[in-house]
């Protein structure tokens, strides 16, 4: 995927780590219309490919993401309060389908077989929180801050924050943030468990995130995939259901060759060498 031209992202894979970088710093990396189709395409292509084993999602500029660009509100199929021609069901069905499509843009991060790490500096506002809540890990700089902005513009957040963030942060805290629209700084985000670590500045965060990504990329890709699948499933189901799920997953996916390589590399005091993922295909394609 390296070299592919996107409007909102730069993408490069190095040493099994895919670096997906939002590239509109002059607009605080706001989410314009192409963003919503490009992100799931990138996530799906990286997941289906063989080169990457982990994704790092970051941004150029002072702010990680300022949320939905104002231009999208007028073109995303939202309710038109001026309409008075009747048959409002069509208009509302269009609004619903648009909301579901936007939700899928972030669900692609969750559905990817690759872990996704968000590296957050400056503002992470509105849709930015929807996005990072769908990631596996979150790291921040000291100047990072988070706002569930939707309440401040008279709407209910509808692209994932209210569904995913309570799985990461105590529900009462999420309700407070969602009801008041107040700012949560990086120190509080760390205290609440929303971010994994806070680094002094962007350079320190980048170094820390790259170290974590490299460590993940060094593990068995199949074992990492199974771990992500099992944890996502367990989050949304009972303990009993989760235990049955992982038993079935390992019955199908347990790889004795990967385990043998892991043990042998430890005995030999060397880095393990695991085969890449095989590509995913849709349907019956070769």
Decide which structural class fits the backbone.
Answer: alpha/beta
Tell me roughly what share of residues is in helical segments. 40-55%
Largest sheet: 6 strands, mixed
Strand content: 5-15%
**What strand order characterises the main sheet?**
1-2-3-4-6-9
Number of strands: 9
Report, as a whole number of angstroms, the end-to-end distance: 20 Å
Shape: globular
Separate helix tally: 11
What is the radius of gyration computed over CA atoms, rounded to a whole number of angstroms? 20 Å
Q: What's the helix-strand series? A: EEHEHHEEHEEHHEHEHHHH
Low-confidence stretches: none
Please, what is the average pLDDT? 93
Oligomer: single chain
Structural commentary:
By secondary structure, the chain is of the alpha/beta class. About 45% of the residues lie in helices and about 15% in strands. The strands form 2 sheets. It has a 6-stranded mixed β-sheet, with helices on both faces. A 3-stranded mixed β-sheet has the order 5-7-8. Strand 2, helix 1 (about 35-50) and strand 3 (about 55-60) form a beta-alpha-beta unit. Helix 1 packs parallel to helix 3 (about 90-110) and helix 9 (about 220-235) packs antiparallel against helix 10. The longest helix is centred in the middle third of the chain and has 24 residues, at about 90-110. The model has no long low-confidence stretch (mean pLDDT about 95).
């Amino acid at each position: 995927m390296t070299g592919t031209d996107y409007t909102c992202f730069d993408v490069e894979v190095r040493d099994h780590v895919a670096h997906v970088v939002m590239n509109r710093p002059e607009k605080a990396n706001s989410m314009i219309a192409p963003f919503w189709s490009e992100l799931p395409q990138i996530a799906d292509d990286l997941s289906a490919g063989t080169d990457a084993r982990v994704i790092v999602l970051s941004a150029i500029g002072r702010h990680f993401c300022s949320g939905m660009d104002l231009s999208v509100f007028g073109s995303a199929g939202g309710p038109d309060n001026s309409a008075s021609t009747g048959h409002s069901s069509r208009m509302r069905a269009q609004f619903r389908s648009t909301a579901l499509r936007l939700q899928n843009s972030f669900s692609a991060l969750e559905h990817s077989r690759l872990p996704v790490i968000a590296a957050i500096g400056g503002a992470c506002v509105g849709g930015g929180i929807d996005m990072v809540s769908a990631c596996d890990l979150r790291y921040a700089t000291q100047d990072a801050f988070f706002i569930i902005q939707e309440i401040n513009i008279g709407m209910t957040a509808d692209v994932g924050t209210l569904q995913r963030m309570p799985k990461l942060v105590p529900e009462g805290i999420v309700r407070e943030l969602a009801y008041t629209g107040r700012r949560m700084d990086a120190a509080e985000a760390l205290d609440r468990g929303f971010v994994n670590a806070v680094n002094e500045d962007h350079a320190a965060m980048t170094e820390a995130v790259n170290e974590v990504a490299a460590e993940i990329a060094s593990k068995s890709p199949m074992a990492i995939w199974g771990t992500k699948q099992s944890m996502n499933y367990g989050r949304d189901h009972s303990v009993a259901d989760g235990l049955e799920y992982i038993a079935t997953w390992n019955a199908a996916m347990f790889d004795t060759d990967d385990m043998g390589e892991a043990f042998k590399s430890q005995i030999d005091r060397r880095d393990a060498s695991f085969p890449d993922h095989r590509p995913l295909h849709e349907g019956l394609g070769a």
